[in-house]
Amino acid sequence: MPDTHFKSLILGAGAAGMMCAAHSGPGTLVIDHAKAPGEKIRISGGGRCNFTNLHTGSGNFLSENPHFAKSALSRYTPWDFLDLVARHAIPWHEKTLGQLFCDRSAKDIIAMLRAEMGGAGLWLQTSVEDIAHRDGRFHATLTREGARMTVTADHLVLATGGKSIPKMGATGLAYRIAEQFGHRVTETRPALVPLTFDEAQKTVFAALAGTAVDTRVTCNGAAFDEAMLFTHRGLSGPAILQISSFWREGDQLSVRLRPELDLYDQLRARRTVGGGKATATVLADLVPRALARHLAEAWGVTGNLADQSDVSLRDLARRLSDWQLTPTSSEGYRTAEVTLGGVATDKINSRTMESQILPGLHVIGEALDVTGWLGGYNFQWAWASGVAAGRAI
Ligand code: FDA
């Protein structure tokens, strides 16, 4: 016999699930197997949560259907979220490229969402054993504080996110339940993730660990002008995290160092005024010293700048503008910020996030095949899709 009946049962007290609960009215229960709600919010943006991006548009998302996100994003915009943040008097700042962060702590956003959830129930450390649908209701068998129980609900919202950071409790549960009810799940893979290289390259990058340089990184038609960071394991930094969503095994990256400069002009100008310097020394005016040293050695750059012909300077500028690197893999779900792919959008209503196969079933947030770029877009999707489902319930 069911113990309790709710209008809506939301699986996952993350960004999307809490936002949905804030809009779904009385009779809402949110469950999560974690000890606290919004754990990914807490660690996001280096503890300051990059909670939205002012320039959010559907073009900042990857999905089988690039139009799917448009409806929800247009009905709940970054400005709507900013209104909410203002009502809770949370101080914030724009860091760069429209990315908004908390001044104090990501915990401000969690507290705000908790308050917005009002009277919705929140059961933590609760796991899902089984979900069934019969007699027009969802029946969820749960384990809470060691006790098994069943709850029923008219609406079931899948908000358990993707597979990234399993150590924090990511499970892919939403995919399994969606499949159980006839939905397709697209291929999933780690995204917004550092890339790794073969041993030889790894050794070189490890020697440069901590060095950051402005780049344009290009792969499969996508290009990002942001910083690239060398690490003990390979490459990271915003430019690499961004491109990782487009990179596939076997693909090469093209790295343009200092993309804002015409490097050939720069080298020629320096030859005119300081040609007596070693070319490798002059390179260190353009890129960090340790990287300049490595590149000069790897590319066999010797002699003074004055000794270099126009042709060799052009060749050096070309190499700096198209440094080709072939990652072997990524750091995987262990460190990926998001999961690319998810529940296919083709059988989900883009206004309500409701299943077109089983009315009453909704899928929101990262669990769906909608993956944002780095920079606050993923949270904006979590808010917008959560609101879309919450309003429809
Ligand atoms: P989310 O993952 O937030 O929530 C899912 C919830 O479901 C969790 O509380 C989890 O415990 C629960 N759950 C999972 N499986 C379960 C199960 N089997 N049973 C019960 N509960 C279960 N984005 C951004 O826009 N700006 C940023 O600054 C950052 N920074 C960032 C840093 C790091 C380190 C990471 C890992 C990620 C980010 N992101 C980000 C991405 C962002 O955190 C992510 O896209 C959203 O949290 C997705 O929100 P959801 O609510 O869909 O899932």
From TrEMBL:
Keywords: FAD, Flavoprotein. It holds the Pfam family HI0933_like. Residues 189-338 form the RsdA/BaiN/AoA(So)-like insert domain. The keyword Flavoprotein applies. It comes from the Bacteria. Its cofactor is FAD. InterPro entries: BaiN-like (IPR004792), BaiN-like_dom_sf (IPR023166), FAD/NAD-bd_sf (IPR036188), RsdA/BaiN/AoA(So)-like_dom (IPR055178), RsdA/BaiN/AoA(So)_Rossmann (IPR057661). Residues 8-391 form the RsdA/BaiN/AoA(So)-like Rossmann fold-like domain. This is Aminoacetone oxidase family FAD-binding enzyme. It comes from Roseicyclus mahoneyensis.
